[in-house]
Amino acid sequence: MKRCIDLNCDVGESFGVYDLGRDAEILDFVTSANIACGFHAGDPATMRRTVRMALEKGVAIGAHPGLPDLVGFGRRLMKITPQEASDMVTYQVGALAAFVQAEGGTMRHVKPHGALYNMAGKDQALAIAIAEAVYRVKPELILFGQSGSQLIEAGQSVGLRTANEVFADRTYESDGSLTPRDVPGAVITDDEQSVRQVLSMLQTGKVAAGQGHKVAVEADTICLHGDSPHAVEFAKRIRQALEREGISVRAIL
Fold this sequence. Notes:
The chain is α/β, with parallel strands linked by helices. Helix content is 39%, strand content 18%. The protein has helices at residues 23-26, 44-57, 82-102, 114-122, 124-137, 150-158, 191-204, 231-244; strands at residues 4-11, 32-36, 60-64, 107-110, 142-146, 161-167, 206-208, 214-216, 221-224, 248-249. Strand 1 (4-11), helix 1 and strand 2 form a beta-alpha-beta unit. The chain is globular and about 40 Å long.
């Protein structure tokens, strides 16, 4: 039974005239913020504002680098080389690190976004390239990756601290991967189902998956997606459920 867990959320995804998400509200309930770095979402002004909000609310700050795909929100597969992955991550992590430093804060972690995250979870070469890029920029950063993925193994192999991530609002396949978003039922929209899934993962170390399987997971941090219509209410409900069970919610130290 886990007695302490981090809640992370993807934020800072507005750009230009497009205002996405309720960041100021959701930051009251999560403990780590993954801030978009301008490739899949976000822009310089949004990065600055989101960094400042996270610091004011005492939320740990992380970079959320993605593929260069604003139209597809970084969720479409893109064929890239390990070197291209390394360059993309270096560029985006460095950009956010500059804003964090300018605001007097400290960046704590890196979590790849969307398709880049999923690709690196299964592709060892991409995972290593990303982990090495993070290490070269700032070796004390924590690399977030899906529990049991290549990204976690790569981070550990290059000397990074890693955090195993599980998902409150996504369903799982029998191999432990997330159900692709284009498959019906991939995103959990029922709050009670999400709460049950989270508590099961923390209490039993397993999650229900496709075809009736139970998949073992290790949970250091729980992902809540900030772009859903009821993200704030969902974050509040998850946090309250955890605290009722005596599970402390705090950033990874």
